[in-house]
Specification:
This protein has 867 residues and is an alpha+beta fold. It folds into 4 domains: 9-194, Immunoglobulin-like, CATH 2.60.40.1730; 310-442, Neutral Protease, domain 2 (Orthogonal Bundle), CATH 1.10.390.10; 448-530, Sandwich (Immunoglobulin-like); 553-865, Peptidase M1, alanyl aminopeptidase, C-terminal domain (Zincin-like fold, Alpha Horseshoe). Helices cover 41% and strands 22% of the residues. The protein binds (3S)-3,7-diaminoheptanoic acid (B3K) and zinc ion (ZN). The site of zinc ion has 4 residues, from helix 2 and helix 3.
């Protein structure tokens, strides 16, 4: 919808709905040129609300008829509301509307994709299908009938159970579905298409049999088994860990290539981006396989955390999202490798959520206001939200948390509730006082903790003093911060009895450790026990000790990241001042020792520990970022390590060569990850021999992980001519041009390249037949990924800012949600020098001043410009 004047919605203004909808009966007549939707709603006045007219939500609906109890009634319609006054206490409202899913480029509501029609209703897409009270606290029981041409759309699906089906005149057919569970409209879904299906079953703990089905584009059935196995594993895991059983007879997943986000948890009829369903070892990487496990689990877990208990209003989004991300993280940790999973979660949080929390779109995990709710499906609501849930578990223990979950469902099954309701159940089950903890829901910004240690040899005490500050607003209240700590002796042994969970509640607080006979090395925030930044004045020797000896592998990794960050940031300053960076030998020695711990600590861990902090994470530590110097500094350290450890990297590369047939197991994935990290370092040397080595791996690989890793390192080769690079890119496209998800990888590997000519390449690729601005995956792979390429997006001449701004304008009306995500590339523009800021401001203003800007983009751009 074009902007009227975008309204801000406030949490504090919440009121209960004026009317309730007990049952919904929908009839879809899908025809070429338009779909007619007849909605029959059994409604009644909400006894809890004051008497007022009925105001229904709609968007781009052509209204054909409105009747109440079978009679035409007067109504007042605007583009987004339909108002009916003087209604009885209870009544049947019937509306008939026409919609045009073939022209629905926003992919919200009912829309067309290659193989048929699909829906996306969260957050407010249902109103693009029919007039409704489109808010999550209106829950109803649905029956749905679909009519369509049988040959073109043989598969007709809706939520719930199939109850009837039949033929109609003119080669058409129909199917009727009934969902026994009450649900909010955002969980509604239908599909009409020509799709292949993989079927299986799951037997629940109580012995019921659930029919499972995964629907995909014809010809893709051999890419479904991994997702099916993931679904079965998720169902089992939720029974074991949380005692939660699947409540459905039918659980369907439908994969679609045009989808705005990852997947959607519609009751019994999940709709997924193909990216999180399709996998086969030659087309999907280890990371893809793991992501599919996580996303399939995530949507399945929503069946309880989101669907059975849903959100009262959209401000409570983290109630279901933070909790469900935490659940999928735990599932992933149990299924794969707990410690590297944690490392990757934190890496992701630092790369995306910390910058968000420090930028113009910062918001608490429960925002207090929004203009467009789709702008708040953020890494703060999701990933920081999951960290907040994790802290609850840390504070009350795993058993306490499980009891709290039981209590939550005992109290709220079938309801639409708030974050307070969730925390109250946790409090009731554990006896823990969460009053102060609730600030995590209401304050934004990443808290900072400064820690200082004092050892008193005489009293054998070690006093740790911590001071917290909120980086955004000094007038905000201190948080309850759980800080997991252990103390280490100089020889690297853990001091007995020193492992503690500190609960920091004051702005400044001291914690005393007794019976400490030597000055210890504190290991702070073990397992990343709170989403904060933490400083302690470590010496490089202390960090080296933790990297080598800390048994909490997260903090061992963290020590390495701290060492590397300091070096890179110092080198950035040196390079900016025209000096050469200096690298201490001790760092190389530490890296060398790290390589030797592969057998004990696992290849996956070593791979993570050898991966330097990313540029966007490093940039957050700087007041003014010189992106070129930062980029040069990080790469210089990589090259230095490669030069010093060439023998080790080559040896490990050879030693880790595949010795069994490919399987996406975490053990094998760890070996591949480390081997490919070695390859990456070797390519820093950019000799003819290492280029050949990469090309050999590219050609010889029997799996996408190794093939793509080789392609990625070649795509970074900076030399003007690099035949290996050109060959690999060309061969890859020639081989995979018909696999859309692999083409996405091909686009992303070029848009994220370090090469200085990347913008030119990206521009050229926008005209390539492989690119389609109407497909979100393509836009994310080529354009948005480029926007996250710190050095290239922040080119000094502002050319990349202008390019992204043009793409945002090109997309804002066609697909506001995707355009708005693209506009977020500008989030950190104020971190750069005045000249870059001037270019970025001009680009943002060019978007803002575009006539009729969608409110999604307008909200992001206005906030970015500081309005
Ligand atoms: N709940 C959906 C996200 C919907 C996004 C709407 N803009 C997917 C998920 O979190 O599981
Ligand atoms: Zn979710």
């Amino acid at each position: 919808m074009k902007t009227d004047t975008p309204q801000t919605v406030y949490l504090k203004d919440y009121t209960v709905p004026a009317y309730l909808v007990d049952t919904v009966d929908l009839d879809f007549n899908i025809e070429t040129g338009g779909t007619t939707v007849t909605a029959t709603l059994a409604m009644r006045r909400n006894p809890a609300a004051a008497s007022q007219p009925l105001i229904l939500d709609g968007d781009e609906l052509e209204t054909l008829s409105v009747t109440v109890d079978g009679h035409q009634v007067p109504f007042a319609a605007t583009a987004s509301t339909l108002t009916i006054s003087d209604l009885p206490e209870s009544f049947t409202l019937q509306t008939v509307v026409r919609i045009d899913p073939d022209k629905n480029t926003r992919l919200s509501g009912l829309y067309r994709s290659a193989d048929g029609y699909f829906t996306q209703c969260e957050a407010q897409g249902f109103r693009r299908i029919t007039w409704f009270l489109d808010r999550p606290d209106v829950m109803s029981t649905y029956t749905v009938t679909l009519h369509a041409d049988q040959a073109t759309y043989p598969v007709l699906l809706a939520n719930g159970n199939p109850v009837d089906a039949g033929q109609e005149a003119n080669g058409r057919h129909w199917a009727k579905w009934a969902d026994p569970f009450k649900k909010p409209a955002y969980l509604f879904a239908v599909v009409a298409g020509k799709l292949d299906v993989l079927k299986d079953t799951f037997k629940t703990a109580s012995g019921r049999s659930v029919q499972l089905a995964i629907y995909v584009e014809p010809g893709k059935l051999d890419q479904c088994p991994h997702a099916m196995a993931a679904l079965q594993k998720s169902m089992k895991w939720d029974e074991e860990r949380f005692g939660l059983e699947c409540d459905l007879d039918h659980y369907m997943i439908v994969a679609v290539g045009d989808f705005n986000m990852g997947a959607m948890e519609n009751k019994g009829l999940n709709i997924f981006n193909t990216k999180y369903v399709l996998a086969r070892s030659d087309v999907a990487t280890d990371v893809d396989f793991e992501n599919i496990d996580r996303v399939v689990a995530h949507e399945y877990f929503h069946n309880w955390t989101g669907n059975r208990v849903t959100c009262r209003d959209w401000f409570q989004l983290s109630l279901k999202e933070g909790l469900t991300v935490f659940r999928d993280q735990e599932f992933g940790a149990d299924l794969h490798n707990r410690q590297t999973a944690r490392i990757r979660e934190v890496r992701g949080l630092r790369a995306a959520q910390f910058p968000e929390d420090a930028g113009p779109m910062a918001h608490p995990i429960r925002p207090a206001s929004f203009v467009e709710i789709n702008n708040f499906y953020t890494s703060t609501v999701y990933e920081k939200g999951a960290e907040v849930i994790r802290m609850i578990q840390t504070l009350i223990g795993r058993d306490g948390f499980r009891k709290g979950m039981d209590e939550y469902f005992r109290r709220h099954d079938g309801q639409a509730v708030t974050c307070e309701d969730f925390v109250a159940a946790m409090a009731a089950a554990s006896g823990f006082d969460f009053t102060q903890f609730m600030r995590w829901y209401n304050q934004s910004g990443t808290p900072h903790v400064a820690a200082d240690g004092y050892f008193d040899a005489e009293s054998k005490t070690y006093t740790l003093t911590c001071t917290q500050s909120n980086t955004r607003a000094s007038d905000e209240q201190p948080y309850l911060i759980p800080i997991r700590v252990a103390l280490f002796a100089e020889d690297g042994t853990l001091l007995p009895g020193s492992e503690r969970l500190l609960q920091m509640t004051a702005t400044t607080q001291s914690f005393v450790f007794n019976e400490v006979s030597e000055e210890p090395v504190p290991s702070l925030l073990r397992d990343f026990s709170a989403p904060v930044t933490l400083d302690f004045d470590y010496t490089p020797e202390q960090l080296t000790l933790l990297l080598a000896h800390e048994s909490d592998l997260f903090n061992a990794w963290e020590a390495g990241q701290r060492l590397a960050s300091t070096l890179i940031l110092d080198a950035t300053a040196a390079i900016a001042a025209g000096q050469a960076p200096v690298w201490p030998g001790s760092f190389v020695d530490a890296a060398r020792r790290l390589l030797q711990t592969q057998a004990q600590r696992g290849a996956a861990f070593v791979a993570e520990a050898l991966t330097l902090p990313g540029e966007s994470t490093l940039a957050e530590a700087l007041d003014v970022v010189n992106p070129d110097a930062l980029h040069a500094a990080r790469n210089a350290l990589r090259r230095h390590l490669a030069e010093q450890l060439e023998g080790e990297f080559s040896g490990l590369y050879a030693g880790l060569a595949p010795n069994t047939a490919y399987a996406p197991s975490s053990e094998q994935a760890g070996r591949r990850a480390l081997r490919n990290v070695c390859l990456g370092y070797l390519l820093e040397l950019d000799t003819p021999a290492v280029r050949q080595l990469a090309l050999q791996q590219f050609r010889g690989a029997d799996n996408m992980t190794d093939q793509f890793a080789a392609l990625s390192v070649l795509a970074n080769v900076n030399a003007d001519t690099c035949p290996e690079r050109d060959t690999a890119l060309a061969d890859f496209y020639a081989r995979w041009q018909h696999e859309a998800l692999v083409v996405d990888k091909w686009l992303a590997v070029q848009s994220t390249s370090r090469r200085p000519d990347t913008l030119a390449t990206v521009k050229t690729l926008t005209a390539h037949p492989a690119f389609d601005i109407g497909n979100p995956n393509k836009v994310y792979s080529l354009i948005r990924a480029f926007g996250a390429n710190l050095a290239r997006f922040n080119a000094a001449d502002g050319s990349a800012y202008a390019f992204i701004a043009e793409r945002v304008i090109e997309l804002h009306d066609r697909n506001p949600q995707v355009a708005s995500r693209l506009a977020r590339c500008f989030d950190r523009w104020k971190k750069f020098d005045a000249s870059r800021q001037a270019h970025a401001r001009a680009a943002l203003e060019s978007i803002r001043d575009h006539a009729g800007l969608s409110r999604d983009v307008l909200e992001v751009v206005t906030r970015s410009l500081g309005g």
